[in-house]
Amino acid sequence: MKLIGTLTSPYVRKARLVLLEKNIPHEFVVDLPQGSLALQANPMGRIPALILDDGFCVFDSAVIADYVDALNDQPVLIPRSDAAARLRVKRWEALADGIADSAVVVRTERMRPNDKQDTDTLELHNKAISNALAFAAGLLGGNEWCEGESITLADLALTSALVYLDLRQPERDWRGAYPNLAAWSAKMAKRKSVILAGS
Ligand SMILES: N[C@@H](CCC(=O)N[C@@H](CS)C(=O)NCC(=O)O)C(=O)O
C-alpha cells in the first residue's frame, strides 16, 4: 500500500505512526494537497490518502487509522471489545485532530498579509487550542498513556498534533504550562515510530 502526504501534515503523521507502530509494510509517497497523486487518491485532494494494493483509495486519517488498526493486533491501537474504552480513544483522536484543525486555521490566517488577517478567527482558534491542551493535560493526569495501560491511537494522534503545534507555534509554551504532557511527550518522542516519522 502507498500512503500519500507531506512530512509536516499532522493528519499524515498520525497515519504514518499507525502504520509504523503496527509494522505494516507500505511506501510513503510525498505529495502536496491537491497534488496529482493526492487528487488521484482523494476527490477532495486532501492528504493523507492511502492507496491499497488493489487500487482502492482510503482517505481521512481517522478512516485510515481505523482500517490499518484492523489489519493486525500487534498492538491493538483502537480497543475492539470494550465500547467505552473505544469511545475514549476516539474522543482523544477527535481532541488531537481538533488541535491540529485549529493550528492549521491559525497558520493559514497568519500567512495572509498582516492587514488581511482576521483577529477574531485567530483568537477563536488559539483559544480552542489552549482549551484543548488544558483538557488533554487534565485527562492525562499522572497516567503513563492517554488511555489504558498501553499505547493506543490516542497517544499517536496527540503526538501528531503536538509535533505540528511545535512546528507552527513554537512560541506556545505548553510544556511549561503542563509538565505532565511534557513528560509524556518526551517519552513518546523516543519511540522508533515517532523518530522515523520525523519532527
Ligand atoms: N480530516 C482530515 C483532514 C485532512 C486535511 O485537511 N489535510 C490537509 C493537509 S494538513 C489538506 O489536505 N488540506 C488541503 C485542503 O483541504 O484542500 C484527515 O484527518 O485526514
Descriptive report:
By secondary structure, the protein is α+β, with helices and mostly antiparallel strands. The protein has 2 domains: 2-71, Glutaredoxin (3-Layer(aba) Sandwich), CATH 3.40.30; 83-196, Glutathione S-transferase Yfyf (Class Pi), Chain A, domain 2 (Up-down Bundle). The chain has 9 helices and 4 strands; from the N terminus they run E-H-E-H-E-E-H-H-H-H-H-H-H. It has a 4-stranded mixed beta sheet with strand order 2-1-3-4. Helix 1 (10-21) links the parallel strand 1 (2-5) and strand 2. The mean pLDDT is 98. The chain binds glutathione (GSH). Glutathione binds next to helix 3 and helix 4. Glutathione (GSH) is lined by residues 9, 11, 33-34, 45-48, 60-62, 97, 104.
In short:
This protein is 58% helix and 7% strand.
> Helical residue percent?
55-70%
CATH topology of the largest domain: Glutathione S-transferase Yfyf (Class Pi), Chain A, domain 2
Q: Compute the CA-based radius of gyration.
A: 17 Å
Q: What is the count of DSSP helices, taking H or I runs of 4+ residues? A: 9
Bound molecules: glutathione
The CATH class of the largest domain turns out to be Mainly Alpha
List low-pLDDT spans. Answer: none
* Total strands: 4
Strand content: 5-15%
Q: How many domains?
A: 2
CATH architecture of the largest domain: Up-down Bundle
Overall pLDDT, averaged?
Answer: 98
Please tell me what the overall shape is.
globular
Question: What's the end-to-end separation, in Å?
Answer: 23 Å
* Succession of helices and strands: EHEHEEHHHHHHH
Give, in spatial order, the strands making up the sheet with the most strands: 2-1-3-4
Q: By helix and strand content, what is the structural category?
A: alpha+beta
Largest sheet: 4 strands, mixed
